[in-house]
Amino acid sequence: MRIQNHSGQRPEPMNGFISPLFRKSNIDKALTLAIRGVPQAWQQTEVPVNLEKARDVYDDEIRLLDSLHPRRRLFSSGILGAALVSLALDPVSIELWRAFNESHWFRHEDGRIDPAGWLLAESTRHTGYKLITVRHDYQHYLFQSGLAIVRHVTECRERGIEPWLTDAPRPVSIPDLLMAVRECKKVRLSPDLFRPKASLVGRIPRLQPVTISHRTNHELVRTIARRACKLQRFACKKRSQRRGMQAMKSLSVPAELAAPGALAAAAVTISLDPTVERIWRDAFAGRWSHRPGEGTTVAGQLVQAISFHNREPHGLNSELTLMARCCMAIKTHCRLLRTTDEPRLVSLPRAATDTVSELKAACAGLSIDPTPELEHGYIEPYGRSDHSRRQPSKKPYARTRTGRQAEQSFEQVHARYGWPRPGQLIDRTADGCGYDYGIVERRDEPEWAIETKSVRPGQQFSMTEKQWARAKALGDRYWLILILCTPEGERYAAIRNPSAVLPAREKLVVIRQINQVVSPTDWARILEGQWEEFEGVEGDEASKSPCKDPDHPEDSE
């Protein structure tokens, strides 16, 4: 492996290593995380890390990890950076990284999982899905997770208790850990190595995990199940098919596990054998266990099959492969049940090629694309007590005075009335993410996206290309709030999923940006009789301030 330092010169190769992870792979990203706490891409104004010096700082830790023969599939840059920092501060943590590398983990049916198992689930959740794994924020989330899990293990060891987990571990202070490494290694501060703690606090974000959510489409599931039951291997009576479909609908399915292929497999297998309904309920409720060497219960194998499918969904064919794999897991369970009371599977059953081929032939012609939604999670700046307001970006995009007044009016409406939905209001105006606010009611669900627009009667408004694309991607989770300025005051209307409701036409503007323009006739017709009035809302005298002249060709924000 060759590492390039900030001066452009290439130092000598790192020889004498056992693992290909260090002999062939590039660990410069991990070293940058272990020195600065953030990726190099987030340090545009800082002097780059001298990777040759960084390698000398963490030379002992690199060689200690090399003795484990680390697997490249598990030790991505984020995990590797966390391992370097944790080993520098606590060499005993090598036992955790050994268990992580060997996939030696435990899980109880009540949901308790050991640290190695929790970190394995987080690090392999999207393995192979390059749209996610190559992102800097994703690797930085793994970096934070690795440090948090090691700190959790250390605290439990000091208190003399078992380090079981039922939720994510408490976040860590990365600046404090890096300063502790610097003091432990007796390294001086320098522009190309460790930086002062003050330069890191407030600049290291706290990330939430990426989530993949499937929209429940019972019509698609029913179609797939009916066509599958016409095959000889899944043949059953129509009465049994209806019973299986009703049982599937009664299941409480998390959005991340609600893949159409899995739900179709549930409907078919329950139709063939009603007793397997308990297995599906256990899978979706998280009641499954894993023991090293003994394997995982079939409910856990179903969850792992869906998680494996979520890594890189390809459409209908991928759903049919998932369906065949789940059916194979149920079939294997029923076969093992004859010889043991608690069947466990050591590895994930593979889908039979002939079964997948028959399902694809039976479902040919279905044009519905069941691609799930991808949510990268919101970012909270580290070290701030109030996370509902975001720090402005260094180069905020231009904002109109009328647009800011509309946002202030909406903030007052939401704070006083909880409209259109109660929950925590997260300011996104400085993010440039395609909407102004996010609303989160519960931590276990994705946020709603809120975009505000101020208009006058007879005036058109427009949405930028990014806003329109986000509206299409988020669907029912995207809301457009129109604030109508009239001489009598302001009135409010909410449009859910505007890309599916509003008729818009493209308009090419001079800055090479495509806006979706909605005519005043269309929005007035669609929202007739739906306007709301709120008393006591005075966002910077928004109701008295003039909106944009309707004769001007510019679009209001």
Task: Tell how many strands the DSSP assignment holds.
Answer: 15
Terminal Cα span: 51 Å
Overall geometry comes to: flat
Ranges where pLDDT stays below 50 over 5 or more residues in a row are: 1-14, 381-401, 539-557
Structural class: alpha+beta
Q: Roughly how much helix do the residues carry, as a percent range?
A: 40-55%
Give the helix tally: 21
Mean pLDDT: 80
The largest β sheet comes out as: 5 strands, mixed
Q: In what order do the strands lie side by side in the largest sheet?
A: 8-9-10-12-13
What portion of the residues fall into strands of 2 or more residues?
Answer: 5-15%
Radius of gyration: 27 Å
Which helices and strands, and how do they pair?
Elements: H1 20-23, H2 28-36, H3 51-57, H4 59-66, H5 77-89, H6 94-101, H7 115-124, H8 130-133, H9 136-159, H10 174-185, E1 205-207, E2 211-213, H11 218-229, H12 238-249, H13 260-272, H14 277-285, E3 290-291, E4 295-297, H15 298-310, H16 316-336, E5 344-345, H17 353-362, E6 373-375, E7 379-381, H18 401-417, E8 424-427, E9 437-440, E10 448-455, E11 461-463, H19 465-474, E12 478-486, E13 489-496, H20 498-501, E14 505-509, E15 513-518, H21 520-526
Parallel strand pairs: 10-12
Antiparallel strand pairs: 1-7, 2-6, 3-4, 4-5, 8-9, 9-10, 11-15, 12-13, 14-15
